[in-house]
Amino acid sequence: MARAKITIVGAGNVGATAAHWAATKELGDVVLVDIIEGVPQGKALDLWEAAPVGLFDCRMIGSNSYEETADSDVVIITAGIARKPGMSRDELLATNTNIVKSVTEECVKASPNAFLIVVSNPLDAMTWVAKQVSGFPKERVMGMAGMLDSARFRSFVALELDVSVEDTFALVMGGHGDTMVPLPRYSTVAGIPITELMTPEQIDRIVDRTRNAGAEIVGFLKTGSAYYSPAACVVEMAEAIIKDKKRITPCAAYLEGEYGIDGVYVGVPIKLGAGGVEEILELDLTDEEQAMLHKSADHVRDLVDQISL
Ligand code: APR
């Protein structure tokens, strides 16, 4: 069986870290693409030279063009600018729309059968751009955010209760931004809902910290945004597709009536496998949760309405 091929566009913080993790998981050959001359080549070569000691047997290629990306199974789009302190993800809209549009056009020409996973922000709107421009079916275009927001929630639950992260599960739905919808009653430690393990005040604190987790990191870094955790999550998504794991995880998926939402990308629990977004799970939300989800979807729709392709 041929090795899987993964293209990562954007060899910056998220892209290069994703390449590193894809390599250590021996997920497949990686092609790193960036507009900056030399950077993808240098990072890919450096990573390849670690292969003998890291013991991974996948090729790492860097390029400024798309020929090398031909026939990729999965394309990860991280190209774009990252936010600085005080900026919201939404402020990246105009710049990153142009970047994601041109990158998608190139990727799709080279790899017409690939799965596209978008990481560039504002996430839900950029995933919509990738879908519009690619013309790919909704099963093959998705955004990485729900898994990240849920991982952040889980990491805070583990800290608060001093338990293993391995035993935590969390569900965060909605757009990747201030309107995201953490769902404590679907968040557990070893199957026990956190609502039974924590006070409402503790939960509120964790929910707040999760909503602002991206900004918390930007506040520390000052010159860019989070990359270890976004990269880990996007590699986990690529792995679920390549290995047909049928993971149940929140991702930005294109909704056509599910949860009463139509025509936008929003974070919802999906089944992720060799067919891409194989299923959207429709949970029974309370009226309050449903209202929060709709508010979040409306916000994504406002952003999308500002885009002209
Ligand atoms: N084609 C290819 N690469 C591009 C293009 C393009 N048209 N435009 C920009 N890039 C590259 C930049 O040269 C840079 O190397 O994208 C890379 C982005 O890297 P960083 O600036 O380090 O940003 P990063 O932290 O990786 O974030 C990338 O993901 O999480 C989101 O909000 C974040 O939108 C941002 C994206």
Describe this entry's structure for a reader.
With about 300 residues, the protein is an alpha/beta fold. It has two domains: about 5-145, NAD(P)-binding Rossmann-like Domain (Rossmann fold, 3-Layer(aba) Sandwich); about 145-305, L-2-Hydroxyisocaproate Dehydrogenase, Chain A, domain 2 (Alpha-Beta Complex). It has helices at about 15-25, 40-55, 95-110, 125-135, 145-160, 200-210, 215-220, 230-240, 285-305, and strands at about 5-10, 30-35, 60-65, 75, 115-120, 140-145, 170, 170-175, 180, 190, 190-195, 245-255, 260-275, 275-280. The protein has a six-stranded parallel sheet, with helices on both faces. A three-stranded antiparallel sheet has the order 7-10-11, with helices on one face. A three-stranded antiparallel sheet has the order 12-13-14. Strand 5, helix 4 and strand 6 form a beta-alpha-beta unit. The longest helix is centred in the C-terminal third of the chain and has 19 residues, at about 285-305. It is globular, with a radius of gyration of 19 Å. The model has no long low-confidence stretch (mean pLDDT about 95).
